[in-house]
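ok so i was messing around last nite and threw this chain in just to see what happens. nothing serious, just curious
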Amino acid sequence: MNAAAALRSVYKSTIRHQTPIYDFLVPCLAPGRIRPQHVSFTTSPALPSTEQKPEALKTSSSAKRWRPLTEEQRQFLDSALRVNQAGELAATLIYTAQTPAIVKAHPHLRPLMQHMYDQEAGHFSTFNHLLARHRIRPTAMYPVWKLAATALGWSTAMMGREAAMACTEAVETEIGGHYNGQVRVLLEWMRRMEEGGEEVGQEIRELVGELKRIRDEELEHLDTAVEHDAKGAGGYGLLTNVIRAGCRAAIKISEKI
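result:
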């Protein structure tokens, strides 16, 4: 099956099972949808904001020069946003697979599972928008990650509440560090732009803010998992190490494919 047919199959399966919608991924696969206009990241001037921000994030003088991002910077953003979007898809599918068994055994956890799912779905929507807006190629590994995430969620739920929470802890440990790394890179870009007398564009500022918000919510999930006895899972060390290694491998693969 070629890539287009595989993505079409995922799209149709998603509609049937009411899982996250990915028709933005390949607009030509979703009849009737309008192809989004390509908009590139730039360092162009932006309107001033009234929100108090760190010095590096404050609006610069209009006298500052601006330039498009370099090819290396564009490649970094393409890769980063592709990985982020795939990761958030996986998170929604993990919670979708875990919730029925966990809630059946522990009804009081329904609001918590719903809260964490809703936040992940919001993150997924954010990166959907960014990929569509900037015409960034999504990972070709969608069918694989979909199956892997669903299997991980279901299997850890079958192992019990503690194992499900250990899964969340392991995933969020890797993802929190992943987002932290991206924020550091973007802040370093901004610092260099400021020092070189260049304008920092509004899109980059907004992206930094979004990544920080999403990172903080992911780390909230990590803390929640620990509070709900993640470390009491049977084979905790082995389980979390395997999941974390899988996350790191998925990130590396999605950066390239």
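not much to say yet. Residues 44 and 144 are 38 Å apart (CA to CA).
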